[in-house]
Description:
With 256 residues, the protein is mostly helical. The protein is built from twelve helices and no strands. It has helices spanning 4-7, 9-30, 41-48, 50-82, 91-97, 104-117, 124-148, 153-160, 165-194, 197-203, 210-219, 223-255.
Amino acid sequence: MNKxxxxxxxxxxxxxxxxxxxxxxxxxYSFQDDAGHFTLSNITRFFKDKDALSTFALSIEVALExxxxxxxxGYPAAWILANKSLNKSAVTVVxxxxxxxxxxxxxTLATAELFNMAGITLGKGTLLFGMCYDYLPFMIYxxxxxxAKMDQSYAEAAxxxxxxxxxxxxxxxxxxxxxxxxxxxxxxxxxxxxxxAISEFLTNNKIKLFGTIIQENINxxxxxxxxxxxxxMLVIIGITTSFQSREDDEEAGGLI
Length: 256
């Protein structure tokens, strides 16, 4: 019990049971048919399924639009929060955390009810509004953390060399804050593609995203095809994450 590694044992068991085992089951089901035999038909079926491909394309489109909205709204908010001359109270930062204390499903249901009370037709516009509302904090905080810890001597040096405030922002602040922007994109884009509850409640199931197809297959006991779709999503997440890790390593190497 005196060894530090012993205290890590509960976390290791948790990771094995609730992370490693479920991922392993997804892979196994993806390459099995109903009889438990090895097959690639579940994977090839996705590339032949026009409905699944169109839904996947729509999910990418919605995710790109939501990510763009979160950047347009989140970056100025993060910049204001990190600017001590504009934000002199730490309470302001806490205000952006407060909505996250409420369950995301409850926030989505409340948003849908507000639209119904206002007589607004549920559709893509309400979907983007709800997604931006739910995922905006995940864009703001990575950018805010990056801006808050940024060395202000770079901006001061640019000002001393005669750079205008706009030039300081675009040539100094923006490039140095890009790691936070990339992290925010990762935290907004991929959950948007795989979500299903938000699209169901804010569009009355008129718009189906990729997560909805996975849910429908699982609910209809089509475990193998549902697992294959989940595996496709995991592969995409893994690829995008590897790109981010590579960029972080390159940035760290450049700083060294």
